[in-house]
Design brief:
The chain has ten helices and eight strands. It is of the alpha/beta class. About 35% of the residues are buried. Belongs to the pyridoxal phosphate-binding protein YggS/PROSC family.
């Protein structure tokens, strides 16, 4: 099946439930992204700043770019002019950097707080208590150019569907609590980004509003190494 055919299948299934489909285009060539674009897809997710910057310059300007990978503070300035949503925000320090760069670009950048829900070692993600601590922090209250629109989580890499269901459900319950406690009057706080190719159906059942699907749309990834990676300067 073609990219367009794959995309049509997923859009029909996912968007009929009111869920946003993020086509994960990391390592995919511009031609493949353009094929998906021409088939009606407008939201694309990238893991690496350098790759997203290069593609944004070459592709239609009505594309909604989501940064779904881990973001280093020294790379924020490169995507601040155009990024629509940053999924993996896992510290107040990163939020402060995004806020600073957003102000420079006279924008407000939407962000999701990444919550650690998996039963495995990972470098990234806030604990439930850390999310609450961050939202109560006086320094957080000073940020005017970022907007927290929801939470993001990645389930354990396992075939145990019961475990995945529990993890997604825990995030949804936590989201509901955070909504009531901190964002009761904020209509923008409505997104839960969970679910990838292997577990998106469970994610949707457990309240996800965004799913991230890549190779099932585009086919096998082409690994590309960026020799001239953006520096820390």
């Amino acid at each position: 099946m073609s990219i367009a055919d794959n995309l049509k299948q997923y859009k029909s299934e996912v968007e009929s439930d009111g869920v946003k489909l993020i086509a994960v285009s990391k390592t995919q060539p511009v031609e493949s992204i353009l094929e998906a674009y021409n088939a009606g897809q407008r939201i694309f997710g990238e893991n690496h700043v350098q790759e997203m910057v290069e593609k944004e310059a070459l592709l239609p300007k009505d594309i909604e770019w989501h940064l779904i990978g881990h973001l280093q503070t020294n790379k924020v300035k490169y995507i601040a002019p155009f990024v629509q949503l940053i999924h993996g925000v896992d510290s107040l320090k990163l939020l402060q950097k995004i806020d600073k760069q957003a102000a420079k670009n006279k924008r407000v950048i939407d962000c999701l707080l990444q919550v650690y829900i998996a039963d495995e070692d990972t470098k990234f993600g806030l604990g439930f208590d850390e999310v609450i601590e961050l939202l109560r922090d006086e320094e957080f209250a000073k940020l005017k150019n970022i907007r927290i629109v929801g939470l993001m989580g990645i389930a354990t890499n396992t075939k145990n569907e019961k475990q995945i269901t529990i993890e997604f459900n825990e995030l949804k319950v936590f989201f509901d609590g955070i909504k009531v406690s901190f964002f009761r009057k904020d209509e923008a706080f409505k997104e839960i980004s969970t679910g990838m190719s292997a577990d998106y159906k469970i994610a949707i059942e457990e309240g996800s509003t965004m799913v991230r699907i890549g190779s099932s749309i585009f086919g096998k990834r082409v690994i590309k190494h960026f020799k001239n990676d953006i520096s820390a300067n």
